[in-house]
Structure formats: structure tokens, C-alpha cells
Amino acid sequence: MFQRVLILSVSIGGGHMRAAQALEKAFLQLDAAREVRIVDTLDYINKLFRKLFLKAYVDVIKNAPGLYGWFYEHFDTPWQNQGLLNVFEKLNTRPLLKLLEKVRPDLVICVHALPAGIISWLREKYRVGVPQAIVTTDFDVHAMWLCDHYEHYFVALDETKLHLEALGVPADKVTATGIPIDPVFAEDWDKAEARRTLNLDPDLATILVTGGSLGLGPMERLVQALQQLKAPVQIVAVCGHNEPLKAGIDRIVCERPGGPARMVCIGWTEQMHIYMAAADLIAGKTGGLTASEALASGLPFLVVNPIHGQEQRNADHLLEECAAIRCNNLPVLAYKVEQLLGDKARLARMQANAKRLSRPRAAFDIVRKLVEIRADMVSSSPQPAQAVTEPV
User: Fold this and answer.
1) How many other CB atoms are there within 10 angstroms of residue 28's CB atom?
2) Positive or negative CA dihedral for 124, 127, 133, 134?
């Protein structure tokens, strides 16, 4: 058993924090740690950088997704940007160093590349002795996740494990477990019962539309396109914390209240696992957590304009495994959906493919592996110096 586990996440969108919370639940349910603490790394970095980092991310994703994709691809050059990363990490080490000295964890788990790099830099320069495990949160691993000082990587796919091994990560230091998601997604719901629980029509085919916790992506245009469906369906739009988006979709519903498509629009919800259990198809962002939750729910993806970068790569994996369809032109979206919903055998195959790919107990597999290799992690991590000098 671990005494104190510190999970370092980043509150950009909701995926990384959901991964951290899934791991926390697994530690506590398996009685594998006496204390687990989740920390938002953005609370422990330079305040000016934090403000710029958050604003730049949201602005670029909303207004210039192509630029985001360019940066993603440009910096996906393994081991080529370490100098730049070291400068950045040096500027953001003091608060995290103080946190480590205060909490004194016997394990740090990073579910975002930002804290993973900082912990690695602290271990190299200031002899911080805490073992580090890195849990990636997309199907592929970007070069920004690579660092020199760690005990173990946990990745989504066997293919990703092979990729890391090709980049120099020892095979015994990387395990393909899937992406950690809340164990509630492993619950077996009857689809009609899930719909009744949510006050939806239990007999109508259901399409779930989501833009993640920030409500990003072309959701309003996507909903308008789905309203052209001729078959009776119900569309549930989940807008997350994006109140302007919810207001916009509500206006769309009011302007066209009739038609065969029944429209339901909600904001942030704690019942996403029930909405996924109730749906036949999910449309929207292919973030790593959302995709993994959908797979656990047996939900095929309708991929529409994924953000270039990790979402595009996640979508590629889903399409390759026949667990998704893609629409590049919104005017034909309704047609493609009608073709799929009308072909029960094809839809059932895609739902089965989604279930086959799912790893709903990934968080528990990660925790069990960490308990198994605990002694090796402690012996391989550096011992802290008698006196730690704070970085300037």
C-alpha cells in the first residue's frame, strides 16, 4: 500500500481531471493508498504563464484550430525540443517543489505532459526523490509527454506501447492499460431504462452531441444539420459549461420546434454515463476521455471536424477499427446518419467494435500495476538530497 499519492493534472477542458478522479477512485476502492490528493498543476505555476496558457489554448481552439494543429505537429519531434522545455520547466518549478516538500508523497502520477516534465526536471536538478508514473490521456503519445526521469508509462494502446519502445522507453517501463475513466462507465445499463431515467422517449433512436466540458466545436451547426433528419429520432446536446452555446442551441430549437427530430439541450451534467448508455450514436469531439467513455458504453462515433492534433489522431484510430463514421460536409450529415441508423446490422457491428476496444477498468489496472512494481519504483528513483536548494 502507498501512504500518500499525489496526482498532478491540468484543468484544461475536463478530460485530464476526469482521468485523475478515476485513478483516485481506483486507489480508494482497491485500498491501495492511505491518502490520495489531486492537484491542478496550473495552481502551482507562474501566475502570468497560467493566465496566458489558458487564454491562448481556448482562443486558439475556438478561433484558429488549424493553428493549433500546426503547433501540435511541429512540436511532435521526439527529443528535439528538450532545451525549450527545460527553460519552461525551470520557470515553473518553485511552487511544485514546495508542494512536494509539504505533502511528501511516495508516488506522483502525472496525467498531463506539463507536470510530468516539471517533475522530471526537478528530479534531475534538485534530487527530488519521489517516483513518477505518467498516464497518457490520448490514444497516441505526443513528443511533449517524453521526459528523462520516470518509473513507468501507462498508455492507451498496444500500438502506443510499441511507439514508446521505438523511442527508447524500455519495454518493462510501459504498460498498455487504456485511458483511465470513471468506473461508472463499466455499469451495464438497459438502453430503454437509461432513457426513461433521463425522461427521454425509450423507443426513439438517440444521438448524443457533445463538445466536451468547454462546449467546443461546431455544435450549433451540427445540431442544425441533424434537424434535417427525416426519421424520428431524439437529439441530446450536452453543452458543458458553455452557457452561450446552450443559449444558442435553445434558440435553434425554439425557431424550429416541429419536425421528426426531438431536441433536448442541457448544460453540465454528472450523468454523462447514463446519457451515453441511452444513446445509439455520439457526435462531437474525439478527446481521449470522451472517446474512451463512449467505447465503454458501446457507442460508435460520428466524427465531425475533429481538432487537428490529438483529436484527429484519436478519430483515426476509431475509424480504423470500424467504431466510427466521418462526415466532412455538414449538408450530407443527416443522410449519413439515416443510412447508418437504417442499417441495424451495420450499427450493431459498430457498437460491438466499440465494446471490443473499450477498457472500462483501466484505472484499476493502472493501480494494480503500480502496487505490483512499488518496490522497484522506490529502489530505482533517486534519493533526495539532505538539503534541497530551491530553484531560482
Assistant:
1) 14
2) negative
Of 7, 2, 23, nearest in space to 362 by CA: 23
How much is the pLDDT for 385?
40
Dump pLDDT digits (tens) for 276-323: 999 999 998 899 999 999 999 999 999 988 878 889 999 999 999 999
- Separation CA 327–CA 305 (nearest Å): 8
Map 353-369 to HEC letters. Answer: HHHHHCCCCHHHHHHHH
> Does the residue 322 lie in any domain?
yes
C-alpha cell at 345: 446490422
Q: How many domains does the chain have?
A: 2
Q: Where is pLDDT greater, at 286 or 14?
A: 286
| Residue 46 pLDDT exceeds 80 | no
Mind listing the pLDDT tens digit for each residue in 210-250? Answer: 987 776 777 888 998 998 898 889 999 999 888 888 888 88
| pTM of the model as a whole | 0.90
Please give the full DSSP string across 159-217, using - where no structure is assigned.
Answer: HHHHHHHHTT--GGGEEE------GGGGS---HHHHHHHTT--TTSEEEEEE-TTTT-S
Whether residue 80 sits in one domain with residue 137: yes
| 92 and 40 both lie in a single domain | yes
Kindly report, residue by residue over 173-199, the tens digit of the pLDDT: 999 999 999 999 989 999 999 999 999
Measure the CA–CA gap between 121 and 124, rounded to whole angstroms: 5
In this structure, are 85 and 143 located in the same domain?
yes
